[in-house]
Structure formats: structure tokens, C-alpha cells
Amino acid sequence: MGEVDTAFIQDPEHRPNLSPIQAEGIPIIDLSPITNHTVSYPSAIESLVKDIGSACKEWGFFQVTNHGVPLSVRQRIEEASRLFFAQSLEEKSKYRRDEISPTGYHDGDHTKNVRDWKEAFDFQAKDPTFLPLTFDEHDDRVTNWTNPSPQYPPHFRDIVQEYISEMEKLSFKLMELIALSLGLEAKRFEEFFIKDTTSYIRLNHYPPCPYHHLALGLGRHTDAGALTVLAQDEVVGGLEVKRKADQEWVRVKPTPNTYIINVGDIIQVWSNEAYESVEHRVIVNSEKERFSIPFFFHPAHYTVVKPLEELTNEKNPPKYRPYKWGKFNIRRRAGNFQKLNVENIQISHYKIA
Ligand SMILES: O=C(O)CCC(=O)C(=O)O
Ligand SMILES: [Fe+2]
């Protein structure tokens, strides 16, 4: 990534704190009541739903154990990610994302107009994925995105696809628990994700950064989708979450074979802010590289997102105007591509004042 480049330098108030607060409080939730089929007491599920509800309310984040995702599937994708990024830039650039085909390799992302110290590879869960061609509200044209197929490492596509299907299974289960925790039917959200999902996986590689005190691996942001399921590197931490209780950045300590879950902007809107999509960011390390793999669980592009009727009433009127998910999504992704002169699209733009 070359020499010191001012594009990476964060404003002083957004620079990392070099003696971070380690988060003890981010709840670790044991999913065995739903993954272990011998456990079928309603009371076990009931307390699980309660724990998920409190975590979503208090943190917007939680970690899961006994999640049912085979460790071997995770190890295979982690290995594939390492092998892919270890190649030369020339090789990786053969699979570079562009405005026409926005999946694949990229290393020039910006978050809030500051460049992120990382490289990444995006892979859609459905191939092809249908999305609006432009973010112009009046343009109904739809396009399809397909995934590139790197030659190396061997079986890359199969490995990634196998992992994605595990992530989808887990996400459907989590959405059921979240629905129950909001007092809704377990399958309330299912219809939005069954057909034409726009979910995708991102392989992230954060190389060591010589000016880690000035730059970030990924600038502060909320996730735009419904849910994110993140596999964080087991050794090199770096994810920081803005603690709702006091607005301090706290570091999420890596725990082997757990997934970090956070609710995204869509759940914030559906729940009419019962649950909030919390800001997070990634710190880089001066010596060690770090890898992570978020899975972004996203509905079909034509989904109109708005506060659910069951969760709003006269006393608690809708806090957001309806918006089309696909338009919002591609506008956000376009903003990450390059430096814009305007602020990137945020969910707050749809807030009813
Ligand atoms: O790398 C991480 O730990 C977090 C990544 C993330 O927040 C994102 O890609 O949206
Ligand atoms: Fe994120």
C-alpha cells in the first residue's frame, strides 16, 4: 500500500486510542438450545430469546457459541483467504471489482471519505444477484452481478459457497430469535430473504500499518443490511464497538470459534429503533496482519424497508420513511468506491424529524 498517504489519515477525533478499553460486556450467547436437537425445552428457548433481546437493546452486538457452523468450513475459508491475499497485487488485480461488476477484489475503499487500510474480496451469495442498475429513484432498470472465479487457491468458489450456505442457515435462525424477541412470529422476516437475496460475503485483509496511530483499517460506520455475522481473526483483534452506555470505543477480544453478530440499519428501521445499529470500526496493527470475514445478510433489492406495523402505534409512530433497500444499498456501495464530495448515504437521511 505504499508510503504515508494523507488519504489514510483520520481527523484527530477519530484516531485510535492506543490503550483501548477491552470489552468484557459484549454478551456471549450459547445457541445450543436451537442447534442441539436434544434440547427442546421451551424454557431454554425462552431464556435464549430474552438474552438476545437484551443484547440487541443494550449493545446492538453479541457473540454466539455452539452456533452449528462446522469449524472445518470456517478453517477452509480462512485458509483460502490467506492464500488469495498472499498473491501479488498483479495477480489479485485480475479479479478487481469495477463499476460494472462490483464483486471481487478491491483495495481502495473509503469510509466517510477517508481511505481504509485494507484490501478485500466480495462474493455474492446468489450468482447472479439482481440489483438496481442505478441509485436514481426513477430508474427501474435492474442489472445482475456475478462472482469472479479466481484460479487460485484451488476450489475457491466451492469453499466460499460452502461457507455462505452455513452463514445463511445461521442468519435465518438468528432472525427467528430476533423476531421472537420483538414479540413477532418467528418467521416474520423470512419472506424478505428467501427469494432474490442480495447477501454477500467479504474477505478482509488488514496488512500491518506503519502509521497505525493515524489510520484505521475500517472507519466508523454502521452496517446497512439486516444482520452481520462476522468471523474475526482468532489472534489479532482490532474490532471496536461504540458502547451504547457511554459512547466509548471498546475492543472486542477475539474468542475462538465464535461469531460476532450485529444488527444493521434495516433491523433498526423494522424495529422502529427498539434495536439500534451500532457504530463500529477496525484498528490496525503496526506488526501483525489481520483477517476477518463478515457475512452481510440482505433482503431482495425490491424490499421496501419501513417500521413494522406491529411495532408502531399512535404513541410510537414510525420514525423512518419507507425506502427501497436496493437503491440504498447500491448508493452506499458506490460511496465506498471512491472519495465523494458529499456525505455518504446514511440511514439517518430517512429519519422522520
Ligand atoms: O473486520 C472487522 O472486524 C469488521 C468488518 C466490518 O465491520 C465490515 O466489513 O462492515
Ligand atoms: Fe461493519
UniProtKB/TrEMBL annotation:
Domain of life per record: Eukaryota
Keyword Cell membrane among UniProt keywords: no
Assigned keywords, A-Z: Iron, Metal-binding, Oxidoreductase
Signal peptide positions on this chain: none
Pfam families per the UniProt record, alphabetical: 2OG-FeII_Oxy, DIOX_N
InterPro entries: DIOX_N, IPNS-like_FE2OG_OXY, IPNS-like_sf, Iron_ascorbate_oxido_reductase, Oxoglu/Fe-dep_dioxygenase_dom
Residue span of region Disordered: 1-21
UniProt keyword annotation of Ribonucleoprotein present: no
Alphabetized GO MF terms: metal ion binding; oxidoreductase activity
Domain Fe2OG dioxygenase residues, every copy: 197-299
Record-stated family: Belongs to the iron/ascorbate-dependent oxidoreductase family.
Protein name as catalogued: Fe2OG dioxygenase domain-containing protein
